[in-house]
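Good morning C.,

I know you're traveling, so I'll keep this short. The sequence:
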Amino acid sequence: MTADRMENKEENPLLANGLAFFSEKQGGKSSAPAKAVAFSFGKQGGKSSARQWARIFLRKTRRIGMKKLEIIIKPEKLEDLKALLDSEEVNGLNIVNSMGYGNQKGIIKNYRGAEYAVNLLPKIKVETVVTDEVAPKLIDKIVEQINTGHIGDGKIFMYEVEDAIRIRTGEHGVDAL
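The tokens, ready to paste straight into the viewer:
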């Protein structure tokens, strides 16, 4: 079916019903039976372009993966990290002040001649969600720019994100980022 015919609901009964049928291809052979995928259009009776139809169809049939990055850094590196995330066009972030320690188990400080063991150090945790394609490149840039070579530079934790939902509009997945 051509793109011109896909956008016309009168000529395409699949679009009129809001259903698209497709067969999964495995090694060039069609697997039995065809799957039905339901989707809805933004406006009832309105025309959707072939590009919009394809985007909706792909969104419903294949999932674009997302990763949550938790980046724990020294407080003095926050502005550098924010500038880096802005340059990489990360859509949003959450910043949390925290206290903790890693392998160094704190530090010993001298104050007016007395030694103090400070085992909880101030840290900043930055959380953001990005697509699977962006995550590895972003991590490499963070490690390159935030690294000072000293103990306590921080850590990056990466988690799979099943879904994201924008509360205001109800959008799901990457569209909600």
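Safe travels,
E.
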